[in-house]
Amino acid sequence: MPAPRTRAVDELWGSRGGEFPTEPKDHGAEIRRYLRDPDGYLIELGQGAGILAEMGRPATR
Fold first, then answer.
1. Stated pTM of the model
2. Per residue in 26-57, pLDDT tens?
3. Per the structure, how many domains does the chain have?
4. Using CB atoms within 10 A of its CB, is residue 33 exposed (0-12), middle (13-18) or buried (19+)?
């Protein structure tokens, strides 16, 4: 299941003509996926997920 921020991007960009050719891939410290925009360009998207914990630093918001 995509992270909440990723789901929001799916909904927003999907409503504007973007297509997601792959499901999100969880690489531990990062969630990555690809977006094809209405002009056909392939865009790589990444969201940090746990990288601060891996570095021994607390996450803050």
1. 0.61
2. 887 788 889 999 999 999 988 777 666 666 76
3. 1
4. buried
